[in-house]
Amino acid sequence: GVGSGGTHAAAAAGGRDSGTGGGAGAAEAPRSRSEERGPGKEAKGREEPRQASELAGRLRSVREAAAALPDPDPRQHAAVVLLGQAGAGKTALLGALLRVAGTWDRRAFEKFLKEQREASSSGAVPATRIERLAAEGRRFTLLDPPGQKRCVAQAWAAMAQADLAVLVVAAPTGELEAGLAKGGQTREHAALAKSAGVENLVVAINKMDSGGGSDGEAKWSNLRYEEVRSELWAALRGVGFHDDQVTFVPISATTSDNLGGEEDEECEACAGWYSGGTLLEILEMAPLPARASGDPLRVSILGREKKGNAMIVSCRVEQGEMEAGAALNLVPGGSECGVQSLEVSGKEVRRALPGELVQARLLGGQPAPGQALCGTEEPLRSAAKFKAQIRLVDLADDQPVVTQGFRCMLHIHQATEECEVTKLIEAVDPRSKKKEAAPKIVRAPMVALCILTLCSGHEVPVEPGAGRFARFSLRTDGGTVAIGKVVELPKSK
């Protein structure tokens, strides 16, 4: 009867769970498809379509509400990273630029200087400082990472967000040479900026009011300015910058001479031998990377923070347009999420254009730095192994010879992973133009084609080409070993 059948089923189920059978000859009830999948998988199978439907409904409401929101400020946005040897004066330059541009009043500037003195005396390594500055023709985000050698990873993360770089060097004799020496940060920062995708470099020759050239201690010396330019040109060409990609400008962050703004339309100190414009004028006129709103959406994740019950994600729109109410994919992983709201420069907007730094509130996603967002129609790939072209650079304290099996740290956009050179395919020596197939070793300044494999097995967002998801640097504790780009990914399964 019904009772007997129920008893048999219960006995059979008890036998499966506990390992004790229902006795010889006991009939085991047949297992349904849902039992074979397991209750968790069945519930998950029902839950996913429901969640997707709920997300789509919420995003429709967001799009309707966002239609009334404004577009971002029509002025071009440029992210500018300040680079250079510790002590060159780049943080003082940050404060001086904000003051002469009218962003800070004198009280705010003096507070900033006091904070810098206290931080310097404490010996603590500061976090990357981010400030905004508005000029007549452009909006700027200024990024000031620490300049110490042990903080190169922080500097790379800032470079990977930047459109332009200001390399700050100190004019006095001895300070410039220290930055250009092997292991110095001036040359390494320039190489990393080029590798990160910065195509235009402004060299701010600071402390011109201190003298220190071969003509004695003359201040604002044209001779010293030309000496510095000459020494830097060799280093900058050596890391890949062309003449039309570099602009030199003499400045003093301490006195604000030749920075621009209302207080200094013309530099009287360098009148007669310099006519190239103030630093702010140069930044307003510098070419920016080509930006196409119609390209597939690519967004790099920079950071995240909890505000109340919401997770706010800091990100940069690398290409395409990011819109409130859009459905996106998180890479790696492929999970779907949606854009609930967007803020640019503290103002809520309906869309963010290429090059914008954005604060985004997301629905259904918890991305972390090193991940990326993309559109659902043209997804971004991720990989733990790829073919790459690397150019070895002579920047590390103890320059290693790279062989198959060589391990180092890979820095690509905001991701950092240990990697291994698992295969050397070919190498070219740029001095002799000699090409070697399957080389046993490669060393600076050779260019090599190789296979890189991430040691953790974790995938990172990558995309062959010249964009931010292709460019990377390879470093050891001693310094930068190579700069490179992803040229090919494994075939999709």
Offer a concise description of the structure:
With 493 residues, the chain is of the alpha+beta class. It has 3 domains: 77-285, 3-Layer(aba) Sandwich (Rossmann fold); 291-374, Beta Barrel (Elongation Factor Tu (Ef-tu), domain 3); 382-488, Translation factors (Elongation Factor Tu (Ef-tu), domain 3).
Q: Helical amount among residues, as a percent range?
A: 25-40%
**Per the principal axes of the C-alpha atoms, what is the gross shape?**
globular
Q: Which sequence of strands runs across the widest sheet?
A: 2-3-1-4-5-6
N-to-C span: 53 Å
The tally of beta strands, per DSSP, is 26
CATH third-level topology of the largest domain: Rossmann fold
Tally of contiguous helical segments = 10
Question: How would you sum up this structure, described in words?
Answer:
This protein has 493 residues and is an alpha+beta fold. It folds into three domains: 77-285, 3-Layer(aba) Sandwich (Rossmann fold), CATH 3.40.50; 291-374, Translation factors (Elongation Factor Tu (Ef-tu), domain 3, Beta Barrel), CATH 2.40.30; 382-488, Elongation Factor Tu (Ef-tu), domain 3. Helix content is 26%, strand content 32%. It contains ten helices and 26 strands. The chain has helices at residues 2-18, 33-37, 39-66, 90-100, 106-122, 152-159, 175-180, 185-196, 222-238, 279-285; strands spanning 76-83, 129-134, 138-144, 164-170, 201-206, 246-250, 298-307, 310-319, 322-323, 327-331, 336-344, 347-349, 351-352, 357-363, 372-375, 382-383, 385-392, 402-403, 407-412, 415-429, 434-437, 441-442, 447-454, 460-461, 471-476, 479-488. A six-stranded mixed beta sheet has the order 2-3-1-4-5-6, with helices on both faces. β7 and β8 (310-319) form a beta hairpin. α4 packs antiparallel against α5 and α6 (152-159) packs parallel to α8 (185-196). The two termini are 53 Å apart. Residues 1-55 are annotated as: Disordered. Residues 75-291 form the Tr-type G domain. Pfam families: GTP_EFTU (PF00009), GTP_EFTU_D3 (PF03143). Belongs to the TRAFAC class translation factor GTPase superfamily. Classic translation factor GTPase family. EF-Tu/EF-1A subfamily. InterPro entries: P-loop_NTPase, T_Tr_GTP-bd_dom, TRAFAC_GTPase_members, Transl_B-barrel_sf, Transl_elong_EF1A/Init_IF2_C, Transl_elong_EFTu/EF1A_C.
